[in-house]
Amino acid sequence: MPTPLTPTEIARLRKDRQFSELFLGVAQYATIYTARLASLPVGHSDTHTDMVTQIIVTGGSGTLSNILPGMTLYVGTTAGAYDVGMCRIRATPTTTTWKLGETSEIDFDTTVTGGLYLTVVNDFGLWAKPIKIEDETPYMDVDISYTNQHSNFAPVPVMGGHHAGFLERTDATPTIDDADTAITYSGSWTAFSFGAAYDGTIHFTGSAGAYAEYAFYGSRVKVMARKSSGDGEADIYIDGVFKARVDLDNATTVWQQWVYDNSTLTEGAHTIRIYCIGTGEIWIDAIYYEGATFEMTISPDASDSWVFGANILGYQWGADGASATSGMTSATPTITYNAAGTYLLSCTISTDTSLTTTGYRYVLVYDDANPPITQFTLDGAHADYDAGGWEFDVTLYAEASRAGIRDRALCVLFARDYFEATQEDCPGGNVIATGWISEENNLKTPDYGTTTLTVQGAQYWLRQMIGFPAGLEMVTGTPTAWTEMKTLTVGRYAWHLLHWRSTATAVMDVILTTDARYASELSSLADSIWQQLRENSFTTIYALPGVDRLGRLFVEIEPQMEMPEDRTWEQIVDLDSQDWEGDVEWLRVTTPPVSQVNLSGVAVDGSISALAYFSLSYGHVFGRHGEAHVQDRLLVGDQATCNNLAGLYCGWMNNPTPQFRVRLCANFRAADLWPRQKIGITVSGEPRGVGISGDCVIREMDFEHDPTIGFLQTSLVLERETEPAIGVNGDVPGREDTDFSIPPLPPLPPLPPILTPYDEPKKVLLHTVDYGFIYTETFDQPFPQWKFINGGLPAEVKNSFNQVVVTPYGRIYAALCGTSAVDISIWTTAQPGGFWTKIVDEDWIRNTIPFGDPEHKALLLAMGINAAAQDQIAFIAGEEAGPPATCGGAFFLGNYAGFASGAATDSVGSAVGFLSRGGGEWMLTANRQSIFWQNAFFSYGSNGATQSPPSLLTSGSAELSWHARAGISDILYVFHRELLQNITGGAATDIPITFNIENAQCGLATDPTSEYVAAAEYNGGSVKMSTDYGYTWFDVEDLPEEGTYAVGWALTDNQRWVAASAGVYYTNDAFTTIYDKTGNLDEIMDATSRVDFIKVLA
Amino acid sequence: MANLYSYEIGTTAGNMVNVETLANGTMPAPKATWRPYTELRTLGNLDVRGVGYPVVTWTWGILTRAQRDALRTYCTGASAAVYIKTQGIDNSDAYLTVTAFMVWPEEEQRDATRRKEFSIEFRKPVSV
Fold first, then answer.
1. What confidence tier does A946 reach under pLDDT thresholds 50, 70, 90?
2. Given its phi and psi angles, is residue A821 left (phi above 0), alpha (psi -120 to 50 degrees) or beta?
3. Is the pTM higher than 0.80?
4. Which contacts of A263-269 are long-range, i.e. CB under 8 A and separated by 24 or more positions?
5. Could you point out which of A115, A513, A553, A763 has its C-alpha 20 to 30 Å from the C-alpha of A963?
6. Chain A residues touching residue B52 (CB < 8 angstroms)
7. Is the separation of the CB atoms in A1043 and A1060 below 8 Å?
8. What CA–CA distance (Å, rounded) separates A864 from A813?
């Protein structure tokens, strides 16, 4: 984690003669196992390309147990090749069956003679883990069903980044004991313990031809042995050349005798071999040399590893190829390598809940004989806050043809740094940036050729990975599904995304915000894992992901959105004019761009009760200049923190000293954009005299290396830290007691803030009779892009919903109302594109409401929302009894997390009705229990606890059940074909009409005032409009004759409406002008199908 | 005849030879100059910081083709890593052994078969 520079380090950065040698390390992945493709398992017999999850192999070579989940499989037409493709080993394989990360991009052609070549390499890369859904049940990574993964959390190893460097020389004169594993023994030797021997051990043999061998780097070597009566002779060879025969026979036994000494060697690498020639036993005790060791030592630290709801219990490091290790079961081991190569470093952390996770990193070790790439120029390394990480370009001149530069290989750009022309450690470490090769640009001029590699950090790759829409909802009990999480926070959502939907937690450090604000649900329709992560982090708590130079991923709250007293992260350095070169130019904003921030937040407690808060900054009166910004649906703690957020956001947006660039005259790698850190700066002396003084946030960072002078130079784009502006309590939208009197008239103050100010609607939800739900967020565009959002909905249900509501929070509830003959149920999703889950079905009804006769059908009568609450619906369900057919059930109120039963449904008939809440009470329109079917409406009060006697409607058949409510008022239009009635304040009035209204939820729509009403003609025909409360109507012209329409109010005012059938149409002048918003709908939906529900969401 | 100066060059520490022994002993000793950094940068406080690696330059007034070719064996391309022993490092009068990148001049001034004002840069000298 970032630490402030010490005075010594600051002095180093201010030295003359700074320069750096740059090196590019490219990971060389070792082959672990090879085999040939035999076949694909049953189920893939018809195709060997699509959705392949496992393969049958033959002819395996290697140690099967060395194949670990997460390694990479090459599929090629020749040994070791990956020309057919790469995929991920998903699980521990058997000799014949290998489970793969689900893939459709590899042609596992089983007709290739001998089978395609399969090569497993120890490349632990960043992959998405596709989700699979079978029979409504989601499985992670193909086949992992939910058991308790969201209550017993897997830990996350935090091991640091990858390592790269050179074997460093250290002068050495060691005595190597015979028991040292670096001495190898060939033939029949016996290890013997004896106190007189060096270090208490000695090896002996009498077998002719047996030898001991040791490799060293030096200019002198000595051999220690025992001499004793009858001992034999030893031949000494160095580098394969005979040097001497040593006689170990001695009248008396003497220990620890130097019996061979060669001090005339040329300094370098040598191998000494000591042979027994068979004339007697030889007892070898030790080898001494004078020379040097070449080693690279790393000290990784896993003490920041973490787990939700448990404790880290242990660490087990793995470092194959290391020459020495210590502390391998601690958080902070020391690992030494003495030979060049690419080494895999692993760390398995375990919890007190008996779970483990293994992380993998690479150690790239080089020496003069095996150097990294050096003949290249750095074309720039850059990071910015919006991109979320680092990228760099290098142009290779002579070493690009290396076979080792594999496509998408891991690269580590590192340096050897000099200050005052003396090699010294650069604060911040030797690694400049890491990433994987994303593309290469090849150039051939008549004179020369170059290859430029672009290397991108994990932020780029996660953005390239399509993620299945991810949705989690908070539950109060133990989670029972992949979509549930207890005490749901942004951090836990991010963990689910990164651990279960990608391999990120295994291949990189993941350090998440510990912000404790609960969310009742978090979901995203964004395409990529990165965007899902960004979207849910920023739109809830203003957090953002970012990947630092070392490849560590952080999700942190935006620094400007923390209260000043909570900005406890470190100031790395305080820069002044001796630290930069050239100009510093900054803009001083004197006209704030934002005049008002209108922020709404919701505080969710552990029981998932939610309270909405509304805040304004600066206040109800707009600032003198600037735009109004709306920030909606933030997670807050209470009204005070909501006000703080509004103020912080306003202060940030109106930053008087936004971004400015400082070109440091130093090799400065001590800072990064992530994790959060401060850079102090003082700039003064410009004529205006305003200056800059204080802490800043780093928004961009660049490294430039001029190879003609060797100077590695750092540029920073800084943003001055801001103070929060004033934040005050806002107004609750739609509340009748909103105080319009302040500020006084004239001039008229702005109306109570509208939470969704916009020019045209953007988000529109459709339900269709053949394709289920379809949705767009580009409705304001000329050619909206529609897409299906039916994830989790069974095919037999998705087309059949007859009641759909969307709560102000954005959650969708869809009901299939009727009797148990039609698969009655209520489904919900947290937001468009989220995963649908069933919350009510026939079993639920039968288990909740005691049936008088179990043979009776279950009945789901009606569903509706309380549009004045964040997330509240009601429905009526029960037992269909009779005759006459009745609903022997109850009123239920709640949301997806649970429902409480209210009043019994006395006198309510069994025909499907409709519910809504307005004017402070719930209203059901249905029919009443009678020997004659009669239309009626029932009031259930403010919370459904009581039911009024039925109020009979004055006319109509018993099927007058649908209604459209005017906003949250007490005004309803009840309709059925040729019948239309107005109910205001409980009083019904017939409205004569001369056409038939479509008998469905979207057959009629009204604006919140009830003055304007749109209606779709029954069973085909056009759309009609009334601007006088339904008393007179005109035909909407210019709409295509596509069949029966669904109509909807398009928010904001009485001029905006939508209508849809086979196409979708929009008007912003009460159907005088029609805009075709069909977009790509006719490409994804057959023209003979149609929309039966339409709702503008925002 | 004893060499007047102690300038040496080699591809390893072990094969360094006195420059004056090159070209059958006809090579004159160079004149060594020293630049402690490559560039000067003006800081925000108008101070100046020298950045980049130091450079040692060996200059000969005139070299014959044979003498020039003898040097060329140490640097057959645009640059090569060499060991040199030279005066001038940090303006020291002592002869110090360093590793450096020997950079062949981009242009060679000719006078018939001779090279005039022949300079070779040794960049990034590091003491060994």
1. confident
2. alpha
3. no
4. A263/A219, A263/A220, A263/A290, A265/A218, A265/A219, A265/A220, A265/A221, A265/A238, A266/A219, A266/B14, A267/A217, A267/A218, A267/A219, A267/A291, A267/A292, A268/A217, A268/A219, A269/A215, A269/A216, A269/A217
5. A763
6. 17-19, 706, 709-711
7. no
8. 9
Contacts of B88 in chain A (CB under 8 A): none
pLDDT at A932: 61
Interface check for A578 against chain B (CB to CB < 8 A): the answer is yes
More confident residue, A139 or B111: A139
Chain B residues 21-40 within an 8 A CB cutoff of chain A: 36-39
Q: Is the pLDDT of residue B1 over 60?
A: no
Residue A96: both structure tokens together: 């014949």
pLDDT at A323: 92
Could you give the count of Cα atoms lying within 13 Å of A19 in the half-sphere of its Cβ? Answer: 24
Cβ-based contacts of A706 with chain B (< 8 Å): 52
The answer to whether residue A581 neighbours chain B at the CB level (below 8 Å) is yes
Return residues 399-458 of A near B (CB < 8 Å): 418, 421, 423
Beta-carbon contacts of A368 under 8 Å, excluding residues fewer than 6 positions away, are none
Distance of CA A752 to the CA centre of its chain: 37
Percent of chain A with pLDDT over 70: 95
Return the residue of A nearest to B103 by Cα.
A708
Where helices occur in chain B by DSSP H, the ranges are 22-25, 65-72
| Chain B interface includes A591 (CB < 8 A) | no
Q: List CB contacts of A93: < 8 A, sequence separation 6 or more.
A: A57, A64, A67, A99
What residues contact A722, with CB distance under 8 A and at least 6 apart? A560, A648, A651, A652, A654, A655
Measured distance CA(A989)–CA(A346) in Å, rounded: 76
Tens of pLDDT, residue by residue over A1033-1074, are: 999 988 888 889 999 999 888 899 999 999 999 998 899 888
C-alpha distances out from residue B6 to A448, A1054, B96, Å? 40, 97, 10
Minimum mean pLDDT among A356-365, A399-408, A782-791, B53-62: which range? A399-408
Inter-chain touch A577–B36, beta carbons under 8 Å: no
Q: Which of A441-455, A658-672, A774-788 has the highest mean pLDDT?
A: A658-672
Higher pLDDT, A455 or A867: A455
Predicted local confidence at residue A362, as pLDDT: 98
State the greatest distance between any 2 C-alpha atoms of chain A, in Å, as a whole number.
Answer: 132
Q: Is A321 left (phi over 0), alpha (psi -120 to 50) or beta?
A: left
Task: Give the three-class secondary structure for A540.
Answer: helix
On the CB side of B29, CA atoms within 13 Å amount to 14
What ipTM does this complex have?
Answer: 0.81
Residues β-bridged to residue A201: A193
Q: Is B95 on the interface with A (CB under 8 A)?
A: no
DSSP-derived letter for residue A744 is: P
Q: How far apart are CA A783 and CA A765, in angstroms?
A: 16
B92–A contact, CB cutoff 8 A: no
Question: Sign of dihedral through CA atoms A32, A38, A42, A43?
Answer: positive
Q: Which of A57, A56, A53, A63 minimizes the C-alpha distance to A35?
A: A57
Percent composition of chain B: helix, strand, coil (DSSP 3-state, to 5): 15, 50, 35
Q: Is A628 on the interface with B (CB under 8 A)?
A: no
Q: Can you say how many angstroms the Cα of residue A505 is from the centroid of all Cα atoms in its chain?
A: 11
- The rounded distance, in Å, linking the Cα atoms of B106 and B113 is 17
Phi and psi angles of residue A196, each rounded to the nearest 5 degrees, phi first: -80, -15
The residues with which A245 forms a beta bridge, in sequence order, are: A235
Q: 3-state class of A406 per DSSP?
A: coil
CA distance A215 to chain B (A): 22
pLDDT top residue among A607 and B83? B83
Contacts of A150 (CB under 8 A, 6+ apart): A479, A482, A484, A485, A486, A496
